[in-house]
Amino acid sequence: MATQARPIEHGAAPALPRTPVKALAMLGIVILAVAAFIGISTALGLVSVYGGFLFVFYFAGLCHAAPDAFIPAAVGAFCGLGIAALLTVLPATMGIAGMAVALGVVLVAVYALLLGRAGLLVNNATMLFLTVGTIPALNTTAMLAEMALSLLLAVVLLGAALLVGRMRAR
After folding, report:
1. How far apart are CA 85 and CA 142, in angstroms?
2. What is the pLDDT of residue 13?
3. What is the pTM of this model?
4. Mean pLDDT over residues 115-130, rounded?
5. Is 156 within 8 Å of 83 (Cβ atoms)?
6. Residue 58: alpha-carbon gap to chain centroid
7. How is residue 166 annotated by DSSP?
8. Alpha-carbon distance 76 to 80, whole Å?
C-alpha cells in the first residue's frame, strides 16, 4: 500500500501542497496541454485519445512526473498494449493454441512483476495498459492500434516537455 513515506512508483517524492494561485496557474497549463493534445490528435485523425490520457495520468499522477520514471512507464505501457494485442490476435488466428500462448505470455509477465524482474518491460504501467487493453469493448485490433497511436503521441509530447524542462533547468 502506498503512503506518503513510500510513494507508489519508482521512489518519486509526493508533491508538496500547492497554494490556490499556483494550483490555478497549473490548471491553466493543464487546460492548454489537453487542448493541444486533442487538437494534434484530431489533426492526425485519432478519434480515441484515452490511451494518451491514461499514460499522462499514470505518469503524472502515480509516478509524480519523475523524469527517471518516464522511460519505464512508456516502455511498460507499450508492453502492456502488446500483450493485450496478443490476447486479441493469437486466439483469432491460432485458436486454442493461440490463447494458450497468449496466456503463457501473461503468466510470464505477472511472474516477472512478482519477482521484480524485467522492470523496464514489466511494471505497473504494463499491467494497467494490459488491463485496459483487454476490456471487451476496447479489445479489437483497430481500437488497440488507435490506443497505441494515442499513447505514442502522448509519449512524444510528454517526452519533449520533459526534455525542454531539463534543458531549461541547466
Report:
1. 10
2. 55
3. 0.85
4. 95
5. no
6. 6
7. H
8. 6
How far, in Å, CA of 35 to CA of 127, rounded? 28
Whole-angstrom distance, CA of residue 50 vs CA of residue 35 = 14
**Spatial CA neighbour of 108 closest among 130, 90, 89, 93:** 130
Q: Please, are residues 56 and 158 in contact by the beta-carbon 8 Å criterion?
A: yes
> Phi first, then psi: what are they for 64, rounded to 5°?
55, 30
For 137, the enclosing helix (H) or strand (E) is none
Contact between 84 and 143 (Cβ < 8 Å): no
- pLDDT digit string (tens) for 4-50? 333 445 555 555 678 899 989 989 999 999 999 999 999 999 988 99
The number of helices, as runs of H, and strands, as runs of E, in the chain is: 6, 0
User: How long a stretch of residues is the chain?
Assistant: 170
Residues 52, 99: contact at Cβ < 8 Å? no
44-90 residue pLDDT tens: 999 889 999 999 999 999 999 999 999 999 999 999 999 999 999 99
* Number of Cα atoms under 13 Å in the Cβ half of residue 37: 27
Given a contact cutoff of 8 angstroms between Cβ atoms, the answer to whether 104 and 94 are in contact is no
Residue 11 has a pLDDT of 53
Query: Exposure pattern of 115-125 as b/e (b: 16+ CB <10 Å)?
Result: eeebbebbbbb
Sign of the CA dihedral 153, 140, 78, 4?
Answer: positive
